[in-house]
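Collaborator request, handled under Task 6.
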Amino acid sequence: MNTLYTAANNHPAIWEELLSEIDITVQIPTDDLSSRIFTTATCLRSFGVNPEKLSIARKIARMEENTAPDSGKPFMVALLPCGMRNAFKEAFFEKFPQYANDDEQVVIDGNLNFEKQFYSYLDHIGSTEELPDILITSDINNLYYRDFMYKFLLQEGFDQLNYPVDYYFSEMTPDHPKGTMKMISSNMLVMVVNQNHYSTSAKPQEWYELLDKKLEKKLVLRGDKDFFCNAVLYPFYKEYGEEALRMLGKNTLKGMHPAEMVREINSKKENEVAVYVIPYSFACKVRNVNFTTVWPKDGAIVSPVQILVKRGKAAQHKELLDFIFGKIMGEQLEQNGFPSFHADTIKRYPGRKLKWVGWNFFIENDLQEVKMKMQEAFMESFHSSRIYSL
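Structure tokens returned to the collaborator:
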């Protein structure tokens, strides 16, 4: 099975024949990261095309006849939070300079660039063989969906990773019960509060306080016109149900990238925002004295950064994995506002509570269905504001 990138570029005439048969209005990319990783069949499924249809299956078979082995398929892909990407790249490429200018082997990029593209393909893969040897992803994404979990996570599709977890994080049980999906760090979401808004009242100290009716159209979350950060929504859904998502949507003024939030806050222009929900790494960059960071009493929300290693590949990439889980990488992440799970790194968040939705919830619920309910409930009450900056 070749990737779409290899098949289409080796047999462009057959690919054009196939496209003319399916006659869809949306362009199927053949030169992006997804096409370099996933098979032609998987890519077609993700666009609603049935690759098992006889005439299409024959064209795919012709494209794969006498085709050279895949080129440009990276063995490692890391889709990271924006604030973590540069720190991770700096440490990783200093240790492994041979990959620094070779995105045909290693891709390290911002998660947001692939939020709506790469992850949707995961719902359609037939085997873990399609995946890179090492896959690092961010947020509670499609890897947590029940279909992927039962097909691959629970069926020994990935190696068990036995790197120890520092006691501070072990209490929240960050890793999949089988040890196949392991958290390497996390975005920790906190509140940046406008003190002028709370000059005569107490600032919010716990997450449920953001549901207060007095905060209608006074919150800013990470998001855009049709997507808001899953990690923020899941705890509200788990603890308070769908109605809480409607209240949160009603209270949300707009969605922004965290870097845009920081720029808006530091501009010192007057605005009506009472609370920005923002990763701690970006909250550290706020310089406006009228705003203060609140680490909620019930914990900073954990938006995970997790790793999967394809079955039988951990030994092959041991040096690389040892470094990712090691002290040097850990120190680099800690210095940039991301917690290290390595026991020997200097911890900058002693005693601060974390709020992690947890594996019991993930296993007991169909997250694909839950996500749809969350987004619908949130958007139902949010759509009237329609202010986006991402």
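The cover message to the collaborator said: "The beta strands are 76-80, 106-110, 134-138, 182-194, 219-222, 252-256, 275-279, 291-294, 300-309, 354-355. The domain at 187-300+372-382 is CATH 3.40.190.10 (D-Maltodextrin-Binding Protein; domain 2). Please let us know whether this matches your experimental observations."
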